[in-house]
Design a protein that fits this description.
Blueprint (H helix, E strand, L loop, with lengths): L1 E9 L2 E9 L10 E11 L1 H7 L16 E9 L9 E5 L14 E5 L3 E3 L6 H23 L4 H6 L3 E3 L5 H12 L4 E5 L5 H7 L3 E4 H5 L11 E6 L3 H9 L1 E9 L13 H6 L2 E4 L7 H14 L2 H6 L1 E5 L3 H9 L6 E5 L3
Parallel strand pairs: 8-9, 8-11, 9-10, 11-12, 12-13, 14-15
Antiparallel strand pairs: 1-2, 3-4, 3-6, 3-15, 4-5, 5-7
The structure holds NADPH dihydro-nicotinamide-adenine-dinucleotide phosphate.
């Protein structure tokens, strides 16, 4: 038996409750690995799934939780043995198959990565999908010629939705790598928090949220990491330096994008999509290794709070309202 959050659909409405489940209810796969889960996380997508929003889940009953870390209990996969420490993010775990909001999870072994050396399971989940995504965004900007020197010369790298999970890790990471960082937030109470993570410029969310009539505006940013989408992304595109790049990560502020081709034609701006879910395994492993090397752990600890499975129903609503700050680790055994 194991304890988990079980979502059920009754009359088109999704309900969530903590239940004791038999092990034989776990999904099965070829090369399956069963993991005793220690920690999971709360991501924006988990908030959507917990609240039955967005049709991300294939079928009910369902155990959500898109990230988890723990110890292998049984393995049909040649690369994993009982006792191995592992991490799971992406591959639609917690959406198309059962995820990490339970004391046990079973996934395809190919979806796991070994717990990166130098990380505890808790810190791996303090990173989770959000941390991995922030790292992938930084890697893609670097591959397109964004450098700390350019951020000093052409304008800072702008992080939007900065007090959220992806945003907080991105600010800390960029600062640690020597970039000049601007952070956009809608929460004035997080200004000191963002400065503490390394932002030297704070931009009010409202300033970027207005509908802009101008496809090009005076240059303010050398690059951007955007969690917000919508009018915010249109603003960032209009204000990015010639040859600059924007890593488009999320849509917390909307999925529509109203712009023109002018930022691309007249300034050669690159709009680069980030997909941490189906990202190839080699790049995933490289991103984990970079996180361990480049992100100061005391900064990660400063953005992390811990909660239990029982707190998730409330927190799942708060994250959708943009009220969660930084990263929330879920201790599934609490
Ligand atoms: P969080 O909720 O932790 O952060 C999102 C932040 O966006 C909030 O903290 C808030 O920042 C800002 N925000 C929220 N609502 C609005 C709004 N209506 N208008 C403008 N800004 C808003 O979520 P995550 O960091 O986990 O995820 C951020 C986004 O990235 C989500 O859309 C998520 O789905 C996506 N994502 C994509 C991934 C990928 O692989 N592409 C992987 C992970 C996440 P503040 O208070 O500072 O303004």
């Amino acid at each position: 038996m194991f304890k988990a959050i079980l979502l059920e659909e009754v009359g088109g409405k999704v309900t969530a409750a903590i239940r004791e489940l038999e092990d034989n209810r776990l999904p099965d796969f070829e090369n399956a690995v069963t993991v005793a889960v220690e920690y999971s996380t709360l991501n924006y997508k988990d908030g959507m799934i917990l609240n039955g929003i967005g049709r991300l889940v294939r079928g009910y009953p369902h155990v959500p939780g898109v990230d988890f870390a723990g110890t292998v209990e049984t393995s049909d996969h040649p690369d994993y043995r009982p006792g191995d420490r592992v991490v799971s993010t992406g591959w639609r775990v917690g959406e198309m198959s059962w995820g990490g909001y339970g004391e046990k999870a079973r996934v395809k072994g190919d979806w796991l990565v070994p717990l990166p050396e130098g990380l505890t399971a808790k810190r791996a989940m303090a990173l989770g999908t959000a941390g991995l995504t922030a790292m992938m965004a930084v890697m893609v900007l670097e591959e397109h010629g964004v450098t700390p020197e350019r951020s000093a010369q052409d304008g800072p790298v702008l992080v939007t939705g900065a007090a959220g999970g992806v945003g907080s890790v991105a600010v800390a990471l960029l600062d640690a790598l020597g970039y000049k960082v601007a952070a956009s937030t809608g929460r004035p109470e997080t200004h000191d928090y963002l400065r503490g993570l390394g932002a030297s410029v704070i931009v009010e969310r409202a300033e970027l949220a207005e509908v802009s009539k101008r496809p090009l505006a005076p240059v303010r940013w050398t690059a951007g990491i955007d969690s917000v989408g919508g009018t915010t992304l249109a603003h960032v595109l209009a204000e990015t330096a010639p040859g600059g790049s924007i890593a488009a990560v999320g849509l917390a502020g909307g999925s529509n994008l109203e712009t023109t081709v002018l930022p691309f034609l007249l300034r050669g701006v690159n709009l680069l999509g980030i997909d941490s879910v189906m990202c190839p395994q080699a790049r995933r492993v490289a991103a984990w290794a970079r996180l361990v090397k480049d992100l100061p752990m005391e900064k990660l600890d400063a953005v992390t709070e811990t909660a239990g499975l029982g707190d998730l129903l409330t927190l799942g609503k708060e994250i959708l309202k943009g009220q969660v700050r930084g990263r929330l680790v879920i201790d599934v055994r609490a």
